Amino acid sequence: MVFPFESLVDFSVVLTQEHELFRRAVREFVEREIAPRALEIDERDEAPLDLLRKMGEQGFFGLEIPEQYGGQGGDYRMAAILSEEVSRASPGLSVYFNSARLFSAPILLYGTEEQRRRYLPQIARGEKLAAFASTEPCCGSDVAGVRTRARRVGGRWVINGRKAFISSSDVAHYILVLARTSDPPDAGRRHVGLSMFVVERDAPGVKVEQCYSKLGLRGNHACEISLTDVEVPEESLVGREGMGFYYAMEAFNRSRIGIAAQAVGMAQAAFEKAFDYAHRREAFGVKIASFQAIQFSLVEMLAKIMTARLLTYMAAKLADEGRREFVFVASLAKYYATEAAEEVISDAVDVFGGAGVVRETGLERLYRDVKITQIYEGANNVQKLAAYRQLVRLLQERGTPPGGA
């Protein structure tokens, strides 16, 4: 009954009044500052630096950073709330938070105290933006295939390589770069020998080659960057040499919760639009909400949203508790929420009919946005594989077969 957990309590999602007060504050900010500009942000596809500064002043970028490093000391559930509420209005803006999270998490978990004090307060206050550079033209979900090289020359590291589809990299001040520092021992251990480095975007040899004109999540750019003989000091190495793959996986495990919440926010927005429209639009002399087909569609949409939300916040709660089970639940949440969101948004377009494909309704934008969530931060087929392998690994560690507890 409780497999793959050990107790029914593990299935609970605990949200407090503090979480609700935070949600209300975020919602008020989003409705006042972001929602009125959502269409403009999508059409112009430019980083809204003024809005990013305001979000920094609200402490949104430092939500999960401890207070001692200038952050809010919030939890993963608050981060999910933030991602959901912002994505409900402008999904592209929520990407900036995830980019910051991917940068900050490895430094918090594995960096030196000097690195934490140097970089995190600036990120937390929104004074500096950050990016995470793992993906390359050759390798997306295959993180172990990274070809960017870093070699030690004297007391410094020299980095050469090319990164692709790096969110926020055109405006980021700091970029966390994954590079190979030694050859893998054999074909079965390609993940060995990767390391992480903090690189400043304006450092000599760092160049933003191009930013892609992409389907959705506009207002945040995914760019290709080249690193040519980029020199960084020894203290730019994050954690231990050769452990970069593991650090990246740990960062992705956490960021997937944010992607799931991003999808939930999009689905919620689509449902609200469809529900409102169905009760205003008339056909054959009656409101279309009186048609059973529309009623069924709206209820099915809501069931998917509630399921996705509960799975997402369950992953966040487990992460807050430091439970290793959060890893496979986060993969499940990322996979399910993004698939469900695409279905909900498609159904919302059907409720609107022809008006659903008009830009001004916002559904057309959500339809474009949601597809990217199924691909980035690990494509959904990869999430299925990851969830299965993580589940098997967890059960092997316990030594307990299903139903044996």
Task: Give structural attributes.
405 residues; 11 helices; Butyryl-Coa Dehydrogenase, subunit A, domain 1; 4-stranded mixed β-sheet; 4-stranded antiparallel β-sheet; Butyryl-CoA Dehydrogenase, subunit A, domain 2; single chain; 3 domains; Butyryl-CoA Dehydrogenase, subunit A, domain 3; alpha+beta; 15% strand
Describe this structure in words.
There is one protein chain. Helix 7 runs antiparallel to helix 10 (363-373). By secondary structure, this protein is of the alpha+beta class. The mean pLDDT is 95. The protein contains eleven helices and ten strands. It starts with 16 loop residues before the first helix and ends in a 7-residue tail after the last helix. It has three domains: 8-128, Orthogonal Bundle (Butyryl-Coa Dehydrogenase, subunit A, domain 1); 131-242, Butyryl-CoA Dehydrogenase, subunit A, domain 2 (Beta Barrel); 246-398, Butyryl-CoA Dehydrogenase, subunit A, domain 3, CATH 1.20.140.10. Strand 9 (282-283) and strand 10 (286-287) form a beta hairpin. Its cofactor is FAD. Keywords: FAD, Flavoprotein, Oxidoreductase.
